[in-house]
Specification:
By secondary structure, the chain is of the alpha+beta class. Strands 1, 2, 3, 4, 5, 6 and 7 form a 7-stranded mixed sheet that branches.
Length: about 190
């Protein structure tokens, strides 16, 4: 298969990010108005991921990926801890009270409630990995990715149980169709 010079030029030319920036700020502002976010803003992060976040290969038809990371509930891997550290970590943290499916459904219901009736909003789909929003005037697709923090512990200290120096941080979500867990380490690659 040959790649034409025209196609290479198209791929190498970054289009304006105004449309994506506008869509990101529009959706972020609506997320920040949801009850869940207002109640949990200190433990929730909203940020771009994908080609817009990395300013790579941005095309007019590319979607905008917005991560909605809730850090109060987290998935973890503590296999690298000693038996003693693992036991202490388990004693310190209590089991989560919010499931991933409940979190995603809360975000979906509260966000669609906020968006309905707004002239820019066209539709929203509950996808397996994200909430797929279509905006209009101008048209752009936005994927909101609800996720929990992922912690891969390499040490644990009772003196500093919340220290981010004890683990590698990533994000974790469930594919709600297959129930497979997906882990991404975005902060390791920035």
């Amino acid at each position: 298969m040959w790649i034409t010079e025209e196609k290479l030029l198209q791929w190498s030319t970054q289009e304006s990010t105004d449309l994506s920036s506008n869509a990101y700020h529009f959706i972020r502002d609506e997320i920040e108005e949801t009850k869940f976010y207002k109640d949990n803003s200190s433990s929730t992060e909203i940020y771009l991921q994908g080609s817009y976040a990395n300013a790579t290969n941005i095309r007019r038809d590319a979607d905008v990926d917005i991560v909605l990371q809730y850090n109060q509930t987290f998935y973890y891997d503590d296999e690298k801890l000693s038996d003693y550290q693992r036991k202490k970590r388990q004693e310190f943290f209590s089991p989560a009270t919010l499931s991933f499916v409940d979190y995603k459904e809360k975000i979906y219901n509260q966000l669609i409630y906020k968006l309905r009736g707004l002239s820019r909003f066209k539709e929203m789909e509950y996808g397996a990995k994200s909430l797929k929003i279509t905006l209009q005037n101008p048209s752009i697709k936005v994927d909101v990715v609800p996720c929990f923090q992922q912690r891969d512990y390499y040490t644990f200290s009772e003196a500093a149980p919340y220290s981010s120096n004890s683990y590698h941080e990533g994000i974790s979500l469930l594919d709600t169709e297959t129930n497979d867990r997906i882990i991404n380490y975005r902060k390791l690659y920035r």
